[in-house]
Amino acid sequence: MHKLRIVGISGNVKAPSRTSALVASVLRRIESELGLPGRHIDLAVSAPALFRALRADQLDEEGAEIVRTVESADVLIVGSPVYRASYSGAFKHLFDLVHYEALIGKPVILAATGGTPLHGLMIDHQLRPLFSFFKALPLPTSVYALESEFDSYAVASSDIQKRIRAAVRELELILPHAKTLALSRAEEQSRLTA
């Protein structure tokens, strides 16, 4: 069986970014607790390659590789700053390019950053419906962090660290399911190429 592919996506469009730091913190926790390293796609860096195309069939190789990485992930950690009551346009554009069947059954940890506690509603009103459309499995515990919970773009709040640990524990519980899906996909792929 292949090693599970963990992919973090930061929907920020500037660097440094609290959102990027939050997604990186979740990835580090998954690696330290579950022994699963991940790849971090930071849209502050990657978005220009995606914006060169309006549709998936227009992507150049750099943009197509980003989309393939997302589509082939076994687990996603997705985060966006709250921007105008939703996720960023760069985040939306990335998922407009992802095939609508590519994320079926994949666990997703949802995260966001914002300026007030009320902005945290974006996770349940925007992110959860997006990943429900994809038939992914958003985990029950999401991670929302205020600007005041960071120190020099590093998570400084023990409450946020507790939420990250809770989300990673939920991921650990669902991973046997994810491993089964990954094995099924690998077997199907080898049958197709045989």
UniProtKB/TrEMBL annotation:
InterPro entries: Flavoprotein-like_sf (IPR029039), FMN_Rdtase-like_dom (IPR005025), FMN_Rdtase_MsuE-like (IPR019912), NAD(P)H-dep_FMN_reductase (IPR051814). Residues 5-148 form the NADPH-dependent FMN reductase-like domain. Its EC number is 1.5.1.38. Pfam families: FMN_red (PF03358). Keywords: Flavoprotein, FMN, Oxidoreductase. The keyword Flavoprotein applies. Signal peptide: none annotated. It comes from the Bacteria. One of its GO terms (molecular function) is FMN reductase (NADPH) activity. The keyword Lyase does not apply. Belongs to the SsuE family. NCBIfam families: FMN_reduc_MsuE (TIGR03566). This is FMN reductase. It comes from Rhizobium leguminosarum.
